[in-house]
Amino acid sequence: MTTERAVMIADSVRAIWCRELQQDDISVDDDFFALGGQSLIMVRIQGAFMDELGVEVPMDQMFLNSTVASISAYIESLGAPTR
Q1: Distance between CA atoms of residues 57 and 74, nearest Å
Q2: Which residues contact 75 (CB under 8 A, 6 or more apart)?
Q3: Phi, psi of 5 (to 5 degrees)
Q4: What is the Cα Rg of the chain in Å?
Q5: 79 three-class SS
Q6: What is the pTM of this model?
Q7: Among residues 2, 11, 34, 77, which is most buried (max CB within 10 A)?
Q8: What's the pLDDT tens digit per position in 36-69?
Q9: Burial (CB count <10 Å: 0-12, 13-18, 19+), residue 52
């Protein structure tokens, strides 16, 4: 069951990825690394998660969750309030 909060997180994550990967559209199942992502971009995305969503996502979780869907689910599992 998809909640309103889950949709908001996925939309925010996708917008951050589009901006940082300079892509017009990214699906929730696209892989970060297949889109050309690398560690420096990942660090910028990690900072954007903190600034825009108010959550700290450890780098190891960013590597383990390399799609919008999986990293969004991880962020939602934190239960932290998002901005």
Answers
A1: 9
A2: 9, 13, 49, 53, 55, 57, 82
A3: -65, -40
A4: 11
A5: coil
A6: 0.90
A7: 11
A8: 999 999 999 999 999 999 999 999 999 999 999 9
A9: middle
